Amino acid sequence: MAFSRHDGPPPSDDRKRVIDRPSDRQIRLIGDDGTQVGIVSVREALALAMEKGLDLVEIAPHLDPPTCKMLDWGRHQYQATKKRHKAQKGSGSKKRKEIQIRPKTDTHDLETKLRHAQRFLEGGHKVMVSLIFRGRELNYIEQESVRLGDFAKKLESLAKIEQPVKREGRNRVTVILAPK
Fold first, then answer.
1. For residue 7, is pLDDT > 60?
2. How far apart are the first and last CA of the chain?
3. Residue 168 bridge partners (DSSP)
4. What domains, with CATH codes, occur in the chain?
5. Are 103 and 136 in contact (CB under 8 A)?
6. CA nearest 76: which of 22, 5, 3?
7. Is 68 exposed, middle or buried (0-12, 13-18, 19+ CB in 10 A)?
């Protein structure tokens, strides 16, 4: 009985299956370099794969005869995982950044926060600018929400307003800016 070098069956979402039991069933065999070997029995294909130190993997079981390929299953799994991680890494890199300001934030500090927002927008991120009120500042919430509009207008060349000035809860007013 031939033993394969993998540690178990592939995950259920992967439609490939490692063949490790010899039989007289006929399969179409593809070599490790991608060339077609031809139609052979599973027993002969396993012998060829064992000779080269590779696994026999069924890649198209629905065909008649099924198609199998000789490859290093562990290396194949490793490369597939790396490819999946690389795809995930690139897709989720753009996130929403938040900048918090208060009604009593000084003009110099607002300019600094404005530069941060500029940098985030140039990096392709969305920016949520939150104006947070505490205590007696809540009495001036309608007047101060104009401050967010001014903040957004200063970034007009880099961003468009994705969500206009909106009150969230009792003590927070936000605006969301997206890069153009």
1. no
2. 63
3. 172
4. 17-89 (3.10.20.80), 96-179 (3.30.110.10)
5. no
6. 5
7. buried
Q: What is the C-alpha separation between 121 and 97, in angstroms, rounded?
A: 9
- Residue 103's contacts (CB-CB under 8 Å, 6 or more residues apart) are 131, 133, 137, 140, 144, 147
Per-residue pLDDT band for 170 (boundaries 50, 70, 90) equals: confident
pLDDT at 20 over 70: yes
45-76, pLDDT tens digit by residue? 999 999 999 999 998 888 888 999 999 999 98
Q: What is the 3-state secondary structure (H, E, C) of 31-90?
A: CCCCCEEEEEEHHHHHHHHHHHCCEEEEEECCCCCCEEEEECHHHHHHHHHHHHHHHHHH
* Average pLDDT value for residue range 103-130: 92
